[in-house]
UniProtKB/TrEMBL annotation:
Its cofactor is Mg(2+). It catalyses: D-ribose + ATP = D-ribose 5-phosphate + ADP + H(+). Belongs to the carbohydrate kinase PfkB family. Ribokinase subfamily. Keywords: ATP-binding, Carbohydrate metabolism, Cytoplasm, Kinase, Magnesium, Metal-binding, Nucleotide-binding, Potassium, Transferase. Pathway: Carbohydrate metabolism; D-ribose degradation; D-ribose 5-phosphate from beta-D-ribopyranose: step 2/2. This is Ribokinase. The gene is rbsK. Residues 3-295 form the Carbohydrate kinase PfkB domain. The keyword Transmembrane helix does not apply. ATP binds at N186, T222, L223, G224, T225, Q226, G227, G253, D254. Activated by a monovalent cation that binds near, but not in, the active site. The most likely occupant of the site in vivo is potassium. Ion binding induces a conformational change that may alter substrate affinity. Homodimer. Pfam families: PfkB (PF00294).
Length: 308
């Protein structure tokens, strides 16, 4: 393994307000804090993979606007091996309005995907060498499905294993599922994919059975404080959640997926990678922001050892 992760996914500019509680419809509340920073599931997961030790090639698309210039500066300074950033003048750079509230630091997010939904198959075809050179292709559903499907097809042609984090949820054809190395839904996404309500480990196992019948070989269902359920060819393993004092849970899923991809690209088993990813995400939620909260490899390793 060459420890290379190719991430195709969204870039958004995040505007985050920290609240004592979520506002009611029609209500205005004074925020405790506010911040603006880089986000988007693709960019966040790429940063997580980088800080978790991988060599990362990030692929995304932005608008030709001020937010797009911000994206270029951020990505150029991140430390990636390579960045392929397409642009369009027809749609704005993706952006997200985020509320973080309460003692559990839960979040509500409104996203305008903008340029993220305009990636063409021809643009993805230009990325064929990067996808072929990677140990893992990591992608999500915050881009147009046609582009995601094309990236997965190129990875299959090249023999590059694909991790699909099906977030934010959009319907995917069942024919896509057998093409994946690994599917990583949270409880809500798993329920939408399988038709089985997922509230605990037992119901996650039932949902996993449905998805295996649809052709999924391996999946990890993240269940928040209940941990994560790894299901491989019908055999399940519960990955415990590491204890954390949450400040902002916005980037938890992205932290988990980026760290997971990094460890798999380094040659770890699925169980080993999931255990590290759980520890990595637990450090992430103790800090504000998404991309800015991604910990270094050594921090997550220390947390994993403390959790053992």
């Amino acid at each position: 393994m060459s420890n290379k992760v190719c991430v195709f996914g969204s870039f958004n500019l995040d505007i985050v307000a920290g609240m004592a509680r979520f506002p009611q419809p029609g209500e205005s509340l004074i925020a405790r804090t506010s911040m603006m920073g880089a986000g988007g599931k693709g960019a966040n997961q790429a940063i997580a993979a980088l800080k978790a030790g991988a060599r990362v090639h990030y692929i995304g698309k932005v608008g030709r606007d001020d937010f797009g210039q911000f994206a270029r500066r951020h990505l150029d300074s991140a430390g990636f091996d390579a960045v392929t950033l397409f642009s369009t003048g027809e749609r704005p750079t993706g952006n997200a309005l985020i509320y973080v509230a309460g003692e559990d630091a839960e979040n509500m997010i409104a996203v305008d995907p903008g340029a993220n939904l305009t990636v063409t198959e021809q643009e993805i075809d230009q990325c064929r060498p990067a996808i072929a050179a990677a140990d893992i292709l990591l992608t999500q559903l915050e881009n147009n499905l046609s582009a995601v499907t094309r990236a997965i097809a190129l990875a299959r042609e090249a023999g590059t294993p694909v991790i699909l984090n099906p977030a934010p949820f959009q319907p995917v054809p069942d024919a896509l599922l057998p093409q994946l190395f690994l599917l990583t839904p949270n409880a809500t996404e798993c329920a939408l994919l399988s038709g089985v309500p997922v509230t605990d480990v037992a119901s996650a196992r039932r949902a996993a059975e449905v998805l295996h019948r649809k052709g999924v070989t391996a999946l990890i269902i993240t269940l928040g404080t209940q941990g994560a359920l790894l299901s491989l060819d019908g055999e399940t393993t519960l990955i415990p959640a590491c204890r954390a004092t949450p400040v902002d849970t916005t980037g938890a899923g992205d932290a988990f997926n980026g760290a997971l991809a990094a460890r798999l690209a380094a040659g770890a088993t699925l169980t080993q990678a999931a255990q590290f990813a759980s520890a990595y995400a637990s450090v992430c939620v103790e800090r504000p922001g998404a991309a800015a909260s991604m910990p270094e490899y050594a921090e997550a390793l220390a947390r994993q050892q403390a959790c053992a």
